[in-house]
């Protein structure tokens, strides 16, 4: 991606990158102009340069992921700012000189302290390489452009962008604030320049005219004119308020050199542009003429700035050098010495005309090839952007899926633990039910007279009752055991204890009046006796011989009478 970016900045097609690399070592070096004041051997390829407001220092953005701050007076490095993870594409000084901003291919912007080189903030918001950055006049806001086709407006004290501006259909290569902080402009590979409202984030004008990628732009100090440079070798001066093109600056004998950097002089009349042929050209926007061409660079110039007092200009490029130029004394290419050839014969002149025609045809063919290569590059950039977006979306989906899987795994663990607890509870309940069944089948014995400690009482089912015929009814557990027979004397004793003395007298009186027929009740089964001693309103009670004997012993008490019966023991006290 970096090689593609470098090719676009140099104005080449992808197919021409190999031949350009081969020709790099054999490039013909131009003669250095006498206007060159000094040359810095930085030792790394540079993409951008910005001056401090006082004109004493400049900062360079390098391909080795660093920024270098140079003092122009001592011609030495004062700070090296490290922190980016990819090449630095653009740099800017704040108007108050307190901060430096940098835009990098690592998708971030950084704000640095200009005095000590400390990184104060790292701004995240773009999805692709950040190609441009600019400070507003109040030094409180930043504007950035990116390959993700968007612009962002930032408050330097916050990490998130205040506004994200959408509108370009291709990469954004340049951004500039208009004086007053109310508008800003952007340059894009979609061949357009757009002017935006900084307060609302809407597009105010779309300036169309360039035939290829618009690589750079800059507002004039009065804010009326806007200058843009393009890979189509032209510099265009716009009137944004009038939505019109004012001037188109282009060399007559164009050699296809593209424009990569442009800056308007403080006088608002002239501008300086850096070209891919390594020359720095000075244009007059009023006369529409080139006033000077400064020679010295051997590689494309990617960064240009003018000091505040307009006394000098600074340029940098891929030849790993930075040069300081004296602008007022620059000489034009027309003033350079040239050899005048001798007069030629008419035949030679005719041959020369034929050669000129063939050269023109070749130039047109080369121009068409360049345009087709630019279209191919644009399609390639479009596919690259789509692929990058798809990769980021897939990454987001994968992370979301991993989070969902972790949540499902946690829920599955909870469910397994709940199932285990339910299984333990189920076993406990089954064991409890079995114990209750065993207790129902084996009732406790009472010490009521059997030698073995057991008593012959009826056994009832759980919550069930014995029937009149001795057959037990079924309880809720549908289990019952037949009641064994009960001794007649024992049943009589039990009935006597329940009736008490008053009941015994009533029983005796009723038996006297009953006559012989009453003995039939005395001979009834123990179950009948027990059933007869039921709730109020039941049929007449029948009493046993033991109860009749107890009636005779009225004064002795039921306990003594029952205790004197053969085969019976005195029952335990009621409290026990």
Strand content: 25-35%
Low-confidence stretches: 1-30, 330-350, 451-457, 459-482, 511-540, 555-566
Give the fraction of residues assigned to helices: 25-40%
How many individual β-strands?
A: 28
Q: What structural class do helix, strand and pairing data support?
A: alpha+beta
State mean pLDDT (0 to 100 scale). Answer: 75
User: What is the rounded distance between the termini?
Assistant: 99 Å
Strand order of the largest sheet: 1-28-27-26
Radius of gyration: 55 Å
Please outline the helices and strands.
Elements: H1 2-10, H2 17-24, E1 36-41, E2 46-51, E3 57-62, E4 66-71, E5 76-82, E6 88-93, E7 99-104, E8 108-113, E9 119-124, E10 130-135, E11 141-146, E12 150-155, E13 163-166, E14 172-177, E15 183-188, E16 192-197, E17 203-208, E18 214-219, E19 226-230, E20 235-239, E21 244-249, E22 259-264, E23 270-275, E24 280-284, E25 289-294, E26 301-306, E27 312-317, E28 321-326, H3 346-441, H4 488-514, H5 519-522, H6 526-532, H7 545-552, H8 558-563
Antiparallel strand pairs: 1-28, 2-3, 3-4, 4-5, 6-7, 7-8, 8-9, 10-11, 11-12, 12-13, 14-15, 15-16, 16-17, 18-19, 19-20, 20-21, 22-23, 23-24, 24-25, 26-27, 27-28
Helix pairs in contact: 4-7
